[in-house]
Design brief:
This protein has a 6-stranded parallel beta sheet, covered by helices on one side. A 3-stranded antiparallel beta sheet has the order 4-7-6. It is globular, with a radius of gyration of 17 Å. 29% of the residues lie in helices and 18% in strands. It has 6 helices and 9 strands. 44% of the residues are buried. The protein starts with a strand and ends in a 9-residue tail after the last strand. Helix 1 (9-31) crosses helix 2 and helix 2 (42-51) packs parallel to helix 3. It has 241 residues and is α/β, with parallel strands linked by helices. It has a single domain (2-232), classed as Rossmann fold (3-Layer(aba) Sandwich), CATH 3.40.50. The chain has helices spanning 9-31, 42-51, 83-92, 111-125, 180-183, 199-207, and strands spanning 2-6, 34-38, 65-69, 71-73, 135-138, 163-168, 173-178, 189-193, 228-232.
């Protein structure tokens, strides 16, 4: 894996935005479209807002970009906790992205049905070929989870490249998530991690003994190459120990 450590959160966000532009441009040049799976949570919101700014909005081929979600909370799309709603507010609506280019999880279905339907949506988009996203954006929880791959959940042992529903006891709720095998098929995977509260998790995932039950983000090892970690110095401070 490749670690990119920067002094400030602002620099982390700009470098990841540059990476996003690069992957989008390459994908459109090679295949005529760019498929990206977005991350939820508070950290990526800053990235999405940056991508809509004058510095970046004209540098991405948005008309050829198709948006998916790495995971989703089992809430209606109008709920404040919805990853889709956050991305719509911060990124999709400001850029006037067409609805036909946005593939949200149908959380009005029961979790297992929503996961199955999303698997079918993804497979249909890729035309029955290997579902290989051009870029998957990921975050890291302070408990070392990524997407909705939480510690000690059955989905950690999934062997199929698809979407699963998982009940997460620590948040007392269902989540719908891409499995690690599906994430690992991506052409590029980028982690966005900043803040001192993430330092211990960064160390455990990157330097700790392999223990996927405790540190699920260790599952992410893209077949196409290294995952790129975009980290600020606060989050990386324990890597030198």
């Amino acid at each position: 894996m490749s670690q990119h450590v920067f002094a400030s959160v602002e620099e982390v966000l700009h470098r990841l935005a540059d990476f996003f532009v690069e992957k989008a441009t390459q994908a459109v040049a090679a295949r005529g479209r760019f498929s990206v799976a977005l991350s939820g949570g508070s950290s990526p919101k800053k990235l999405y807002e940056l991508l809509t700014s004058p510095a970046y909005r004209e540098r991405v081929p948005w008309a050829q970009t198709y948006f998916f979600f790495g995971d989703e909370r089992n809430v209606p799309p109008t709920d404040a906790q919805s990853n889709y709603l956050m991305a719509k507010t911060a990124l999709l609506a400001p850029l006037n992205i067409a609805d036909s280019h946005v593939f949200a999880v149908n959380t009005l279905l029961p979790p297992a049905e929503a996961a199955h339907a999303y698997t079918q949506t993804i497979n249909s988009f890729f035309g029955g070929k290997t579902a290989q996203f051009d870029l998957i954006l990921l975050g890291l929880g302070d408990n070392s989870h990524t997407a909705s791959l939480f510690p000690h959940t059955p989905v950690l042992h999934a062997t199929t490249a698809d979407v699963k529903a998982v009940f997460v006891a620590e948040v007392d709720a269902y989540r719908i998530t891409l499995t690690a095998p599906l994430i690992n098929q991506a052409r590029a995977v980028a982690f966005l991690v900043f803040g001192a509260d993430k330092a211990a998790a960064v160390r455990r995932v990157l330097l700790g003994e392999r223990n996927i039950e405790e540190y699920p983000a260790q599952l992410i090892a893209p077949a196409a190459g290294a995952a790129d970690w975009f980290i600020d110095e606060s989050a990386a401070k324990e890597l030198e120990r």
